[in-house]
Amino acid sequence: MVFIWTEGVKEIWLTSEDTGTYGKDIGTSLPQLLWQLIKVIPDGCMMRVGMTNPPYILEHLQDMAAILSHPRVYSFLHIPVQSGSDAVLSDMKREYGVDDFCIVVDYLISHVPGVTIATDIICGFPSETEEDFEQTLKLVEHYKFPLLFINQFYPRPGTPAARMRRIPTQEVKRRSRELTKLFRSYYPYKHKVGQKEQVLITEESTDGLHYVGHNKYYDQVLISKSFGHHLMGKMTSVTLTDSDKHYIKGTPDPVYTPWIIVAMTTIILVLAFLYAAIM
To answer: Looking at beta carbons, which pairs linking 158-163 to residues 24 or more positions away fall under 8 Å?
Structure first.
């Protein structure tokens, strides 16, 4: 992997359908792989760890907290919960319960400063009652996930759920709207305005007016392109100036190169000399 850094790569994503299961069939584990990768990631470059289901990270919490705290790894993890109801999770044939999810999230929040947890919710699974849905709402209200992917149940052919009696479409849509309304009611980045953070800029926004980067916590940071094309692919010190539901805006801090420092010092000395001569 070392050669990719010489080609200008600044960010790598390690991802699969369930990243946490890595190594179970070959006598190793995800943390072992990640520690080896960290050794070859240069300063100024970052790694993002992909989605993992709760049971496959429970046994590695201490290692994963240390890895996500490493300066060259984003403090971000996508952990799908799908429902806040154990009954629904059981019917979904998930290998975990809500308590397992909460143990993982609570541990990471307490051991990885500022960590971002993303999750998924499925609305309207055939066996989901109104009480089950209320439990999901309470879970989202409790954690206020910055990134929440809301999906309406869709039966995949050949699965047990496809043979179950479905909840009326209008009710599924209502639950989806209610969960979306809750998600839109809080602003996860508002408290960060005014902070200075290191941001790795890797792409352009769809409107063509901004560069898009991410800070250590994988928050999306927009920087006006008016600040110059030299920012692309750089780790840049940024002052966060504004926020919205899905992003933060920032201003790059001035970079004082050696010649600028010499020029400014010379100007100061000349002004001091002129002031002394006049006095």
So the answer is: 160/93, 161/91, 161/92, 161/125, 161/126
pLDDT tens for 148-198 read 999 999 988 888 898 899 999 999 999 999 999 999 999 999 999 999 999
Which phi and psi angles does 202 have, rounded to 5°? -130, -10
What is the chain's Cα-based Rg?
A: 24
Angle, helices 98-111 vs 130-143, to 10°: value is 10
6 pLDDT higher than 90? no
Angle subtended by helix axes 61-68 and 98-111, to nearest 10: 40
In angstroms, the Cα distances linking 38 to 1, 29, 58 are 11, 15, 21
The structure tokens listed for 190 are 């508002």
Task: Give the pLDDT score at 124.
Answer: 97
The CA angle 205-69-149, to the nearest 5 degrees, is 45
Rounded CA separation 38/117 (Å): 21
